[in-house]
């Protein structure tokens, strides 16, 4: 099954990738091509990055079992970024200088992509982030940076559309973790689009990740005197369940929605409270009956003994297949320059998380956002936007 899945993905990807001729040719020992991965498998980002690395590694295994790329095996070398930007930057340098990686991948948050991506950019090595969603990453890092995921603007606007059009919300309360660029950006995009739709932001409140006591924020919300139509909760994954538990246990009943940071275990401390009108915008749904989605889920479950934890596993899987297709398109001239050009030329790559295209002017794919609802301990599909 895995070989068939890979052949289909690689065939679609190779057909979709264009290359630009470059001058240098890399030489690989033992017919291996080194692909470097940095994932924060420890620390606050582990609930996102650990599944991403697993999804990426599953795809690498499938690719190699199917014969590799152009007769060569892909050698994935991984380092733990430890949710520390300095460690991530050092690991990027090590992968390029010591391990001979010709392309790098990893991360579900922009702060770590900025750190490691700057090292990759200076070396001229492409960096394809698996799950980071800040849309200005390529502009800040440079032309070697690409995202597998949609941008925060796309996600937040889809959440605003769903809240306004499907849930009928005309007023919104916004809670923002102001310690991360991901959450502050997400809030800004949501508020701007919600107001464009005709909605009103009644109150925006703030906290810092790790506070774990939201009683003051809850009191300020309840002082408004009536429930808002929607609560937009811009938090990271580690705070999600606690936010839900504290707001719901204090009697707040308005629907909650957040971005892909809530594609995680929402039930940890919240329990059944997380099943009460809670939504998120994310990258894929296990309810999708598409052959590639169900094939990925089956292969992931077979390898790891459990279904994919969240959409970040699927993003890691897609990133590996994009990289493999780009390497295949390089033929015998596999260099960082050629891989970068091939990724940039990717058009209509049908991934598990949607259709992915890049251009010279746009290194962030414009993809569909999947709106899911927390129900019976699972995220259930509601709508594609």
Which tags fit this structure?
alpha/beta; seven-stranded mixed β-sheet; Rossmann fold; five-stranded parallel β-sheet; 14 strands; single chain; 385 residues; elongated
Describe the structure.
By secondary structure, the chain is an alpha/beta fold. It is 42% helix and 19% strand. It is built from 12 helices and 14 strands. Helix 1 crosses helix 11 (311-329) and helix 2 (46-65) packs across helix 11. The longest helix has 20 residues, at 46-65. The chain is elongated, with a radius of gyration of 21 Å.
Largest sheet: 7 strands, mixed
Shape: elongated
H-E string: HEHEHEHEHEHEHEHEHEEHHHEEEE
Question: Which stretches are poorly predicted, pLDDT < 50 over at least 5 residues?
Answer: 1-28
Q: Give the strand order, joined by hyphens, for the main sheet.
A: 7-6-8-9-10-13-14
- Global mean pLDDT: 92
Q: What is the domain tally?
A: 2
Distance between the termini: 31 Å
- Category from helices, strands and their pairing: alpha/beta
């Amino acid at each position: 099954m895995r070989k068939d899945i890979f052949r289909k993905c690689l065939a679609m990807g190779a057909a979709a990738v264009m290359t630009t001729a470059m001058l240098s040719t890399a030489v690989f020992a033992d017919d291996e091509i080194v692909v470097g991965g940095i994932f924060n498998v420890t620390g606050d980002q582990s609930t996102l990055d650990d599944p991403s690395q697993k999804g990426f590694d599953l795809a690498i295994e499938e690719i190699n079992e199917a014969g590799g790329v152009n007769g060569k095996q892909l050698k994935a070398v991984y380092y733990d970024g430890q949710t520390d930007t300095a460690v991530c930057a050092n690991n990027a340098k090590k992968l390029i200088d010591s391990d001979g990686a010709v392309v790098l991948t990893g991360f579900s948050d922009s702060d770590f992509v900025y750190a490691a991506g700057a090292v990759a950019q200076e070396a001229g090595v492409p960096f394809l982030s698996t799950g980071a969603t800040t849309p200005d990453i390529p502009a800040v890092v440079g032309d070697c940076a690409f995202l597998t995921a949609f941008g925060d603007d796309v996600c937040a606007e889809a959440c605003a559309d769903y809240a306004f059009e499907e849930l009928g919300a005309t007023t919104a309360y916004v809670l923002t973790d102001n310690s991360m660029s991901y959450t502050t950006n997400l809030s800004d995009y949501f508020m701007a689009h919600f107001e464009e739709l005709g909605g009103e932001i009644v109150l925006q409140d703030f906290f810092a990740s790790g506070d774990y006591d939201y009683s003051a924020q809850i009191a300020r919300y309840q002082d408004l005197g009536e429930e808002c139509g929607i609560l937009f909760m811009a938090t990271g994954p580690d705070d999600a369940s606690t936010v839900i538990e504290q707001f719901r246990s204090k009697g707040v009943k308005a629907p909650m929605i957040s971005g892909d940071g809530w594609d995680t275990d929402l039930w940890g401390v919240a329990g059944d409270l997380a099943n009460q009108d809670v939504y998120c915008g994310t990258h894929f749904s296990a309810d999708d009956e598409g052959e590639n989605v169900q094939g990925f889920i089956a292969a992931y479950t077979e390898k790891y003994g459990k279904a994919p934890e969240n959409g970040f596993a699927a993003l890691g899987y897609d990133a590996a297949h994009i990289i493999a297709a780009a390497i295949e398109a390089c033929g015998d001239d596999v260099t960082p320059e050629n891989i970068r050009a091939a990724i940039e030329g990717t058009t209509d790559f049908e991934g598990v998380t949607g259709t992915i295209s890049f251009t010279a002017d746009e290194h962030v794919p414009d993809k569909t956002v999947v709106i899911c609802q927390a129900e019976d301990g699972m995220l259930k599909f509601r709508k594609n936007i």
